[in-house]
Specification:
This protein has 248 residues and is mainly beta. The chain has one helix and 27 strands. The chain is globular and about 55 Å long. The termini are far apart. The mean pLDDT is 93.
Length: 248
């Protein structure tokens, strides 16, 4: 259903057999990227189950809002959101559950002003995997459960990660990242809760509740600098002492 005045397309489960139908709705809502558009996934008729060949939803236009209502859920996806290699910005994804064999979100280039809010990512690979010099993302109030790392980011700056529940092999892993604000998350990591490596600098890790199974709650390896690690609560298995954080 297209609301031409609001540039909004609404889809229900019976209208979606693969990512192709959602991508077509994005084209219609944004008029091929020439205007802001909204695509609504309405879960009133049940889950959106991919049965076709295209199982990864490509994001290829700026000024896009993709929102789920009535407990919208996408099942049997490969990658939930795959950002194409274009200079995109002003993208909001909110209120959708992704159950994927691959990543929940994958980017390989620079994308600015992206909001991921109130989504659920249940994935086989890294739930939110960002590469490239992206900036000004807000990752807020998401539920992330994965067999791999929860959030893994390389080369980005000025990202806010707050009020999420994250469970993974490593909860949050940053490489070459700066000016992040990681606050008020509940993080369960099999190895580490938060890991800062490879010259990550000037990041704030504050007021998180971190539980780890093996090594430490928060680790800073040699070469990272000027990070602020403040007021976090760290817990570990009852059979071992909790070092809290390691490194410098």
């Amino acid at each position: 259903v297209l609301d031409s005045e609001q540039h909004t397309v609404t889809l229900t489960a019976s209208q979606v057999h693969s990512a192709y139908e959602i991508e077509d709705a994005i084209i219609r809502a944004t008029e091929r990227g020439s205007r802001p558009g909204i695509v609504i996934l309405d879960g009133r008729d049940g889950s959106f189950v991919y049965t076709g060949d295209d199982r990864s939803l490509n994001i290829f236009v700026s000024n896009l809002t993709l929102v789920g209502v009535n407990q919208a859920k996408i099942e049997k996806c490969g990658d939930g959101l795959f950002f194409d290699d274009f200079p995109l910005q002003n993208i909001r994804v909110e209120g959708i559950e992704f159950v994927c064999t691959g990543h929940g979100v994958w980017t390989g280039s620079a994308f600015n002003k992206v909001t991921l809010r109130n989504n659920i990512f249940r994935t086989g690979l890294v739930a939110i995997n960002m590469g490239g010099e992206s900036r000004d993302w807000l990752i807020e109030q998401n539920l992330i459960v994965t067999y791999a790392n929860g959030i893994e980011i390389t080369g980005a700056n000025k990202i806010v990660i707050t009020n999420n529940y994250i469970s993974g092999w490593v909860g949050i892993l940053l490489r070459h990242c700066s000016e992040f604000q990681i606050s008020k998350n509940i993080i369960q990591g099999n190895l580490w809760g938060v890991q800062l490596v490879q010259d990550s600098s000037k990041n704030w890790v504050q007021k998180n509740l971190v539980h780890y199974e093996r090594y430490s709650g928060i680790i800073l390896v040699e070469g990272v600098k000027e990070n602020q690690i403040l007021s976090n609560t760290v817990s570990c298995p009852p059979c071992r002492p909790c070092p809290g954080h390691r490194g410098r």
